[in-house]
Predict the 3D structure of the following.
Amino acid sequence: MKLALFDLDHTLLNTDSDHSWGEFLVNEGLVDPVRHRAMNDKFYEDYKAGQLDPIAYNEFVFEFLTQHENAYLTALHQRFMQKVIRPQMRPEGFKAIQRHQQAGHALVGITATSDFITAPIFREFGITEIIATNAEVADGKYTGKVINIPCYQKGKLARLDQWLQGRAVAESWAYSDSINDRFLLEHADHAVAVNPDERLEALAKQQGWEIQDWSI
């Protein structure tokens, strides 16, 4: 297997889908604007600093999911895609995905953000194999809990190992913008820093990794 691994937020997208979802809920008048924005912003700053508690953050995101039926959530996500996400999808991301598809490589989207938010976005990019932080569902409803290992920092490698189930990888590529993904990038044969944050840019230069600009 030759494998290409794509981060989502600020890699394939010009935005952070998790933080944008919180802002979308505020702007749509669906949550308490003061509390929700304050918590959303705090967790986002923790993420950028590499100090995020992924369980606490995702349980905060999942609170809203527990209060609504799936049909409503699906329709709301479609509105989120239309209003927020599609304008932020990077053409260079589509091109990179297409290059790997044409080469016959396996493609996996791998993100710390929840599967509820990211799976439809990855599918729109043409990626159907998705490793994300998983929201627990019981009797067809979201419970508000995280199941499995959060797909964050070293957790991405653990979740990738679960996905591979012992299958050998002959060659691998990994694309990310964030120092939080240094472990994933170090694990790959070909690491590509996409519009990297300051710490990842410094590491990429030190390691001799390719740096690409996918911004619009």
About this structure: The chain has a mean pLDDT of 97. The chain is about 50% helix and 20% strand. The chain has one domain: 2-212.
